[in-house]
Every structure is written in structure tokens, then in C-alpha cells.
Specification:
Blueprint: E1 13-15, E2 38-43, E3 51-52, E4 57-58, E5 69-76, E6 82-85, E7 88-93, H1 95-101, H2 106-117, E8 126-131, H3 162-178, E9 183-188, H4 215-231, E10 238-239, H5 259-276, E11 282-289, H6 294-302, E12 307-313, H7 322-330, E13 335-340, H8 352-362, E14 365-370, E15 374-376, E16 393-396, E17 401-404, H9 406-415, E18 423-428, E19 431-432, E20 438-445, E21 451-457, E22 463-469, E23 475-481, E24 485-491
Parallel strand pairs: 5-22, 7-8, 7-14, 8-9, 9-10, 10-11, 11-12, 12-13, 13-14, 15-16
Antiparallel strand pairs: 1-5, 2-3, 2-24, 4-23, 5-18, 6-18, 16-17, 18-20, 19-20, 20-21, 21-24, 22-23
Length: 492
Amino acid sequence: MRSSTLALWALNAASIAAAPGACGSHNLDSRQYPTGAKAFASSSDGKYKLSAFDAPVKGAGSPPPSGASTWKLSVDDTPAGRRQQITGFGAAVTDATVSVINALSGADRAKLLRELMTSEGADFALLRHTIGASDLSALPAYTYDDTDGNVEDKTLSKFGLGDRGNAMAEMLAEMKKLKPELTILGSPWAPPAWMQLDRKLMGGTEQNNLDHAYVDEYAQYFVKYVQAYAAKGAPIDAITIQNEPLNSQSGMPTMYVYADESGKLIRDNVGPALKKAGLKTSVWAYDHNTDQPSYPQTVLDTAPEFVDTVAWHCYATDNKWSVLSDFHAKNPNAAQYMTECWTSSKSTPWNQASSFTVGPLQNWAKGSLAWTLGTDTNDGPYLGGCDTCRGLVVIDTAAKTYEFTVDYYMMAQYSKYMPRGAAVLAGTGSHTYDGGAGIQSVASANPDGTRTVVVENTFGNDVYLTLNTSAKGGEQWSGKILANSVVTWVLP
């Protein structure tokens, strides 16, 4: 159950029973929206893909079909109900992403980028990219300062983005042009091998740690990277100093960083180096799972001058997004994001991308990021780690065609209708039964005065939903939520 410990998303009322599965309209018909409300749906079977759907009506509406499931939600859309402001949603741009998108024809490539970054499609406003190689890179693994024999390069004279780094920076620059308000987060899987105790980029887990003889060079590595990307037209808004610092593996670039070590590196080296260089890039803490909240707490306590944001991943054995609410209670001024959760060709359900978006939003996250944005038809290229991680878009590099996955549509149900600057609203009604089925919902007050309500229905039957709001003297809206789907209402 992804419910906040603040009880903002407790069960309100539900009566679950089988119901007829009537379909809504696929075409945008102005007659459908006499009250100004709109609805859009994406379904697990692919019949609906951000498609116009039966709009909610004001009041109780027509009685639901006999035997239909019913559900009640409430949203506090008064100023008192406003919580965190949304920054955006998106995915990770990896070397795999760049290479497969660049395999498309010029026209199709441009069309895809517009669909990803503008209102033509998902309208993503938050991206994370890999600094050097990750598991979703082709061999050989690399960083931006590799040397023959991994000998030290204290002056960083060998620093360079290389072909893959330049290609990534150029693509991010294009995305930034399409979405000027885009926020870009950079995360390294490992620093150059010569900075590590084992002098290895891959192949071992013993002494897979930073050599503290090079802490200044490590900090300057980030400075040079940020400067190089900015020069390409891809300004970096934030970094984490290590992806998954508690994950040490031999088959891909990784590095183990202790919590107190991370805080001190940011406080004494990375933060001051970025500041001295006149860079506005911020540093986010942690970039790992919800089962170790003491880690980011240590970092924030150690480096409060430079860190006020925490990045979380979804891979804890017993993942609980309520950890973010607990963290918020202790650190009310800290921003939080869900920065990585995979979508798989074999192992994740149809609602995966919705689940790792709605849960964090309910618990004070300002945005959510999928792993990863794009892959080929073999879930790659990859050098190790995840060999079944599927992108939100899959590119057939031989045929030079692309296809959006179910995860893309489920995430776009949020990103397309919850813009940057929208305020997440308090509410009640979300609930998951044992086994995972249920209704999850999150709402926002948008800068243009509209309100968005996103509802995930993992029941195998339609649900007739009644929504009560608090503003404007209190309103009631009613309408159908399609079985096994995510439906978004946009209310005036």
C-alpha cells in the first residue's frame, strides 16, 4: 500500500464488484465537455493511448450501471491543501538512449524528440543523464578522463567528453531547446578508474572506493563536466555524486560511498569547487533506495550549505514511498525526487510507471524519473547490470522505426497534464488491497487555474468515481474510470 503516513491517502469508501466494461470515445468531441472538464485515458491493453475519454460530469451524474463498482475521492483544492510544487517527470538519458534515437532518420528523430519534450506527446520536463558509462552503455566502459594504464591525471589534462559524451550533450541541448524549462540531473556510475582504490572501472568489488588522495581532482571532474555540457548548450541543474552508492558490482561501473564520506565530499570538495567555479549546479543527496533513509539524513546534516534535495530509487525489497513522508516530517524544507525505477520487457506490470509516479507524488516528491528513456528491441545496448530494462520508447535500429511502450503512456498521463509549478493537493481515497489491486490517485492545482486528477485503476472492472472538492464552495464531479487503466481528469 503506497499510502502516506500522514493519512492523506487513506481509504474513503469503496464497493468493489464486477461491472460492464463499456468503452469511452477515442475522439476529442467538444460536445463531450459542456462543463469544461476533460478526460484522457491509457489502458493496459493499448486500446487507449492518451485518448479522449468520457468526461466527468458535475454533480452525482447518471446512476452507475446496476452492480457497478463505486469509489469516492476527495481533494482539498483550497490554499490550505496545497503541498509540494511539481518540477516535472521524465526518464534517464543513457548511452543506449542516445545511440538508438540517433539511429532514426532525421525526420523521425525530430518527431520523436518533439513527442517526448513538448505537448505533442508526453511533455517531459525532468531528465536524468548518465555521466560516462552506465549499465546501459555499449562496451567499452568509459569516463570523461580515462588514461592509459589508469595512471593518475592530477591536472585532468586528459579530460574530454569523447564521442559518446558529446553525442549525449548534443541531444540534451536539443531537448533543452524544445523544453526551455527542462531540469537536467547528472549522475555518474563511477569516476575515472585512476581515482579509485582498485584502479578499475569494472571487474571487481574489493576496494571499490574513492582514493581520497584525489578528492580535489574528483571535485574538479564535476566542474569540468558541468562546464563542458554548458558549452554544448546543455546546462546541468543538479548532480548526484554517485549513482546508488551502496551498490558495488563487478559487471558494470560502480563505486561504494559511505554516508558520512558522501556528506564530507560534498561539504569539503564538490560543493566548494562548484561554488568557486561560479556554477549554479546543485547537489542532490543519495540517489538510492528507500530502505536506508539514514544515509541522506547524514548527508543533509553534514553538508547543509550545499544539499537540500534527496534522490530516491524504487528497488528496496520492501519499497515504501511513505519513507518520503517520514523524511519530510523531519526535513520539511528538503525537496525530494524519485530518480530511478525500471520498466522491464519481462518483469514489470502494466502500471509500473504510474505506480512509481503516483506513490512518490502522494509522499512529497516533486517529480519522478523512469529508467530508461530509450532502448533497442533487445533492451540495450548494455554492458552489464540490467539486460531486461526496456525504455519508454523502443527503437528498431534496423528498420529505423520506434514504438512507445505502455510505460510511456502511463507516465504521460501525469506529465502531460501536471505541468511544472503545479501544486500537489491533499486528498483522501487512495487504497490498495492485498495483492496490489486498487485505486490510487493524486491531484494538482495548476498554474492556469485548472485542476488535474489522475486515477490509477488496477481492478479488472470499470469503477464509477465520485470526487468531492473543497474550493468554490465545494464541488462534486462524477464519471467512469476504465478497468486496468490510468484516467486523467482536467477540471476547470
